[in-house]
Amino acid sequence: MTTLKVHNIESAPEASKPLLENSQKAYGMIPGLHGVLAGAPGTLQAYQTLHELFVNTSFNADELTVVWQTINVEHACHYCVPAHTGIAAMMKVDETITEALRNETPLANPKLESLRAMTLSIVRNRGHVSKEELEAFYTAGYGEQQLLEIILGLSQKIISNYSNQIANTPVDAAFQKFAWSK
After folding, report:
1. Looking at the domain assignment, is residue 6 inside a domain?
2. How many CB atoms lie within 10 A of CB 74?
3. What total number of domains does the chain contain?
4. Which domain holds residue 56?
């Protein structure tokens, strides 16, 4: 049972209607998360804007997935883990990466594992990372830009993960086969 209303175009506040129409055009449906966020038009707009900004960072599909899923799993988001499992498949991310992230096991690729470790440290320590963690991240081939881009991705995921936890957003039919729990 949801604890926040999942809006459709008809029930949404006026300012959210064009945002939901854009979701409908982009995804062929209105994701449940978007329906929840529509209850506060600025929040839905912020989420959509952060999403667009994050997908246009320097990260490739594998790296985007590592950041998203590391945060989703750490926050135990029942909605976002299945959704990003499906999204990763659509982005042609290797299933072994997705499964390792879902199962919280180290990634075989050392650079991606470094990205996972830094993302997890930022989340768990609220940005207080050690000099050694930064050095390991930079040694793996990432730089200051990617460090800041993780924070951008985290900003997006805080909106979605926290909203989904409060709303108990139902997992969209397209992603139910990827159901997950911590």
Report:
1. no
2. 16
3. 1
4. 14-178
Judge contact between 37 and 164, C-beta under 8 A.
Answer: no
Let me know if residue 8 belongs to a domain.
Answer: no
| Residue pair 167/4 in contact by the 8 Å Cβ criterion | yes
Q: What is the mean pLDDT of residues 133-138?
A: 98
Q: What is the pTM of this model?
A: 0.96
4 within a domain of the structure (yes/no): no
Return left, alpha or beta for 58; rule: phi > 0 is left, psi -120 to 50 is alpha, else beta. Answer: alpha
pLDDT tens per residue, range 82-95: 999 999 999 999 99
Query: Tens of pLDDT along 19-48?
Result: 999 999 999 999 999 999 999 999 999 999
CATH of the domain at 61: 1.20.1290.10
Nearest to 137 by CA among 63, 73, 86: 63
Could you tell me if 177 and 13 are in contact, meaning their C-beta atoms sit under 8 angstroms apart?
no
Q: What is the mean pLDDT of residues 125-153?
A: 98
The contacts of residue 122 (CB under 8 Å, 6+ apart) are 129, 150, 151, 154
| Secondary structure in 3-state letters for 64-86 | HHHHHHHHHHHCCCCCHHHHHHH
Does 7 reside within a domain? no
Angle, CA 88 vertex, CA 168 and CA 112 arms, to 5°: 110
Q: Is the pLDDT of residue 1 over 70?
A: no
